[in-house]
Specification:
2 domains; 4-stranded parallel sheet; 11 helices; globular; binds D-glutamic acid; glutamate racemase activity; peptidoglycan synthesis; Glu_race; Asp/Glu_race
């Protein structure tokens, strides 16, 4: 193991930054490659077949380019749909991001909680299984929203977003039967913790928001324990799997996460 071998993060957009941040807190000197699959965005609007084809192939291509020591699939949609095929295709540790249903069930006092994800994530049997296993005594209310992904993308580019837009999305949970009893919401898309402050304001009542970032960071630290790291944080590197759009508006937001080198693949 060479100290310069990076951790490779993958998300179709800026969402993976909500996973990158807690990893950087635990492993400040870890070399980071943040791969943004803009050509495949949005994953949440894709079919299962499209994602099980795309994600393992893309990660294989990225691994030929960057010799990562570990991959973090920093996207719930890709993880709940394509984690198994990725693990079959690649022979390095793969950490996925799955909806934080277990912590939500531990936290909810009303025993009614929401799962807010992409449309592709909330329809997965994976979510049924987690709910059955860890939240058997809870009512789990789901809502899939691509609009919230877009709001997070806009926020990272420094654009204004309106609280009313967040409120309308939360209504997708609150307006369902027993929705008024929700006291906890799982942010089951990595874009959503980036707009947690706006969601909290839009909710208009106290809601606990939970997501997997800290747990993933602990898992990455555990899997890399004893491995060498550089003596100081190296510059983070973004790889855009380009859809041809201008990446300039993204750069200041990425720089806040120490990502200062940019390339297109
Ligand atoms: N950030 C991704 C997730 O966690 C999805 C965003 C998208 O729809 O592309 O599910």
């Amino acid at each position: 193991m060479d100290a310069s071998q990076p951790l490779l993060f993958l998300d179709p957009g800026v969402g993976g930054l909500s996973i990158l941040a807690p990893v950087q807190e635990l492993l400040p000197n870890a070399p980071i490659v943040y791969a943004m699959d803009q050509a495949g965005y949005p994953y949440g609007q894709k079919t299962e077949a499209e994602l099980t084809g795309r994600v393992p192939a893309l990660l294989g291509r990225l691994m030929e380019h960057v010799d990562a020591r570990l991959i973090v699939i920093a996207c719930n949609t890709a993880s709940v749909i394509a984690l198994d095929p990725v693990r079959q295709a690649l022979d390095i540790p793969i950490v996925g991001t799955v909806p934080a249903i277990k912590p939500a069930a531990a936290l909810s006092k009303s025993r009614v909680f929401g799962v807010l994800g992409t449309r592709a994530t909330v329809r997965q049997p994976y979510v049924d299984n987690l709910s059955r296993e860890f939240a058997g005594d809870c009512t789990v209310i789901r809502h899939g929203s691509h609009e919230l992904v877009m709001l997070a993308e806009r926020k990272l580019r420094g654009e204004q977003t309106a609280i009313a837009d967040y409120a309308a999305i939360l209504d997708g949970l609150f307006s369902q039967p027993r929705g008024e009893e929700i006291d906890t919401i799982v942010l089951a898309c990595t874009h959503f913790p980036l707009v947690e402050t706006e969601l909290a304001e839009a909710a208009g009542r106290p809601i606990a928001f939970v997501h997997g970032g800290e747990g993933i960071a602990r898992r990455v630290a555990q899997l890399t324990e004893g491995q060498p790291w550089p003596d100081a944080p190296p510059p983070g590197r973004a790889i855009f799997i380009s859809d041809g759009s201008d990446t300039t508006p993204l750069k200041p937001g990425l720089e806040r996460y120490g990502i200062t080198e940019f390339e297109a693949l």
